[in-house]
Design goal:
By secondary structure, the chain is mainly β. It is about 0% helix and about 40% strand. It contains 3 helices and 43 strands. Strands 19-18-15-14-38 form a 5-stranded antiparallel β-sheet, with no helix packed on it. A 4-stranded antiparallel β-sheet has the order 5-34-33-32. Strands 6-7-8-9 form a 4-stranded antiparallel β-sheet, with no helix packed on it. The longest helix is centred in the first third of the chain and has 4 residues, at about 60. It is globular. The two termini are about 20 Å apart. About 55% of the residues are buried. Mean pLDDT is about 90; it is low at about 1-45.
Amino acid sequence: MTTPTRRRRIGGRRLAALGTVMVLTLVGGSLAAYQVLAPRLAVDGAPVALGAPQFVEEAAAAGLTHRYAGDVDYIVGGGVATFDCDANGLADMYIAGGAEPAALFRNTSSISGALRFERVADRSTDLSAVTGAYPLDIDGDGPMDLVVLRHGEEVVLRGLGDCRFERAEQRWGIRPGDGWTVAFSATWETADAALPTLAFGDYVVEDATGEWTGCADASLLRPAESGRAYDATIPMTPSYCTLSMMFSDWSRSGRRDLRVSNDRQYYRDDGQEQLWRIEPGQPPRLYGPDDGWQTLRIWGMGIASQDVTGDGYPEVYLTSQGDNKLQTLADGPARPRYSDIALRRGATAHRPYIGGDPNASTAWHPQFEDVNNDGFMDLFVSKGNVGEQPDYAAKDPSNLLIGQADGTFLEGGTDAGIVRYERARGAALADLNLDGQLDLVEVFRNQDVQLWRNVGGGTAEQPAPMGHWLAVDLDQDVPNHDAIGAWVAVRAGNHQVEREITVGGGHASGTAAPLHFGLGTATSAEVRVTWPDGEVGPWLPAEGDRSITVRRGASAVEPVAR
């Protein structure tokens, strides 16, 4: 690949403001050279933030033809799960279909090339009434399993390898509910737990006529003493029409509590956002005012978590109708009292930024990722009217908020080329062709899925990476061999980013993939893992522009062959 010689604009900044670095890489088995469009360094050596990368829409050409369809029974949901189901290193997709069958797509893309997918038809995955899905290896045997959320009975699929699955509810003693399930999260409560703890969030209760009569209870499933199956379901009462949930170690104490986001459109006056204390061996307990928890009522749709302030603790982004929330701990980790910093960080995303619609936005799936590899975390937020609500924007494009060096965000959706006015729901940012640039898949209600390839500062014919990168996978002894709950820190010079490995959050969409870190101009970095049980590993050197595996107890990282 070669960089175009003509002058281009990237996110409103000209290439003249960027440095270039020549990189040699193996492409298709031969040595090739290309230029990395990388930020110049500030005086103190810290990287300078870049603008938005360019995205090229390739769904039809890639063979990814699918839609999330349905009437009022599918106004929420519409998720996509991205994970490697055939162990070839490429992220495959399972996409909800609503009133139509869900679909599994195998990724057949060439490395650094155009995106390509092929449909894998099978009765185990071609399920009806699917609202979303989350991948994780429940039994620790290697192949990814799949938790399938439905308007009706949930389904848990055990991965058999080569993108084959079998029903596993009976095998693991899971007694699925039959509600309207849109939210899910999972974690290992202790290092010796044979199975993860699972949380399911249901939306509204429907009577025999289909009328909505209130909010359904969320539920918690913990492993039985045998370790081979699950104990009886624990109702999480009260529940307030849940649309997203996420286990996270918000206090960095080693305990992963459950954050729950709820839709105030349908809950009672006493409803609110929730945080459940999940103490091993103890019943779940809601945090309340005595703990520092403050009442917050929003039209909660999705959750994303990331330390964006650099204080070592994760901020929480909550999507809603109108202004979205970016919460940070107000008093440190001693208690869960949060303050909202979305306005001063430029992350409220409360109205459309293009299209001329003056009404408030409706936000769904949030995801923090570094889409331009400059070392600063960006934030994608999918948008779209619930149906035809007149008080909310009908033309409501998704946001691509580009992280700045001072911790604020600037809108980059127009520059990135991802503006659409259809009603978006779930989404995923993932490196689908292993070129080190995060691509985007977005699910729309009653419209075809969109698939955007990230070409950096270039074109579809001549992609131009904007910075160096590192993808980090973890491995430890079973059962939790993917180290769910671990924290990974990557340090390049004096710039450090830390990320938590979680299962859940977003809107009905889960991703199981190596953690992606942008490095800016740095061609190497150091990696340190805080493992789920709290053990802190050493700083390990790693070369950039590659995927690596950090194995617990190892004295060096392991490059992943492509």
